[in-house]
Amino acid sequence: MSQNRYEAAVARYFEAWNSGAEARGKAVAAAWVEDGTYTDPLARVGGHEGIEALIAGVGERFPGFVFTPVGEVDGHHDVARFAWELRPAGAEPGAAPIAGSDVITLAEDGRIRSVSGFLDRLPAA
What we know:
125 residues, Nuclear Transport Factor 2, Chain: A, 3 helices, 6 strands, Ketosteroid isomerase-related protein, SnoaL-like
């Protein structure tokens, strides 16, 4: 079965979050519209530069970790939701210290207009 527009958008989203510094700008531009936004309980940023800086900061704080989808992408109209984990590369599913779910709104071209993120599991402070 081919990817639908929601799965394709979420795949680009994970590609951006897991990209290295050299590829990050291109991956963010492929995933988000220019004035796209990202909001969760710990961050609120907009535009490609703001999103790139957020992704870089998370990568610096959690080196060697990868964002991994959990379950299926559910979507309708221009909205999709999905769950994820941030875990060390190679770690078993469910062993992640950080997990959450996101709701995205898509633009007409299939890129992300906005992300509303929810954090379900965080490491102890």
